[in-house]
């Protein structure tokens, strides 16, 4: 399967193409469902983040990235770099939805000898371009990939998924400056702004605002959207990737636990606890919300 | 205001200093020229630097192949991260900065972006060990100690221009990450006088000798050879085993050369902690070689600023210091320190 997207013509509202939105919302549902199933296998996982970022991943894998599911090393593929290794559970769910790994394999998540370790590693998983986890690495590697691909005349795009907490790392800003300096219009950074990091709300750990102004001041094209609004995401991605002249960043405000009211309203924590008996309830709530 | 006549300035603690002896044969910018020449036939080779192209001899490559040189600014984390990204898409990057920045500041990026995926990225570190009078900010006295623990990484400490010219293509050919301790500027040319050819991962006995074995790396091989020549006049027979590859270490050659009947001393332009000396000591112990063993290297301290010859004398790296150390060791022939007295009951 090759995902070759026909971008919506500029100026066309994504809302004008309801089929596209429905298709991506369905994909987001299945990504969330996969994530819940994986979470249940291990009784843990960064389920809050996975549910929060599912719409973003659905749009990226269902609408933007060019790849061949059966050939993850295809040289012309767009590179998807997951800086945030702990979001592996979300990435595996998206890979399964995209057909890069079989959905049946998801039940091995986090188990010994699985290709799907709790923290993402490139050498383990097809489609995983880098080993994230030590935060602040993804955008630097993306910089080199984008420079290299352009140098080689390869039209592939580089997409780096970061988190807002990761913006604490100075290396992210070294890379941000570098991308702009080198005019890397073939690079898109996507930031999951969920306002949460290990020690608490981002606003209290290390203030990152004004977020849009920062990126703009670093020379980037910036869009900020509700990262749980598929139509808004599609519109923003279309705008950013239509003949870009600079590196682009999509700031996505997301809600951890999105799609499962029980988890969405739970006290916000970097590592969301889910009791054993709650997984089925979570699945039921997810389905209910999706079909409503 | 003092009116005293200023004394002649004999020394300088400038950043860029040459360790070549006066009148020594040198070769200009051997790294830059070797890389530029290699890139003629190898379109995948690219060069990067972090605002130090001019000071790491990368400017030679930049002039020869401007389309393949990438200026990353004074940002070593993205320098190494981006080099990894370039290797991921099929290029063979050489990324240069000073050793202190590549190892102390950007180690996480060298380790996780380059070494863990096993990418063919060649990190080139200028001012290794004590090759600048600028003080601890620029003296990479512990770069080998930092990097030896990094899996996958090949580490080369060349002696001179001959080593560098041969190492550059060897490192490019090596399918994995490497770190080269760069000697820059006018680099001594020494090893062409010996029956020697650089081979990655191999140690080479440059001269034989009955009394002492010097196991040396980097520029200290040059000093070891000079010391051996001087001691010849005193009828001291000194062998020199040159170990340009620090990792993987040629343990077999080291154990084979370290016969128990001669004094074994390691010589390195690096702290005595965690560099060649300790690696050789471990090799000898594991190899069951029981011999008198010592280390010539930098002390475990932050070093002073000053002129390089002064500092090399003070910290034991000059030829004079090496000769004196060998003589002292030979004059103190007690093979092992006496056992400490047992504590009284």
TrEMBL record, chain A:
CDD domains: TPP_TK (cd02012). Transmembrane segments: none annotated. Keywords: Thiamine pyrophosphate. Its cofactor is thiamine diphosphate. The keyword Hydrolase does not apply. InterPro entries: THDP-binding, Transketolase_N. The keyword Endoplasmic reticulum does not apply. This is Transketolase. It comes from Actinomycetospora chibensis. The lineage of its organism: Bacteria, Bacillati, Actinomycetota, Actinomycetes, Pseudonocardiales.
Automatic annotation (TrEMBL), chain B:
Signal peptide: none annotated. SUPFAM superfamilies: Thiamin diphosphate-binding fold (THDP-binding), TK C-terminal domain-like. It comes from the Bacteria. SMART domains: Transket_pyr (SM00861). Residues 25-189 form the Transketolase-like pyrimidine-binding domain. This is Transketolase family protein. It comes from Actinomycetospora chibensis.
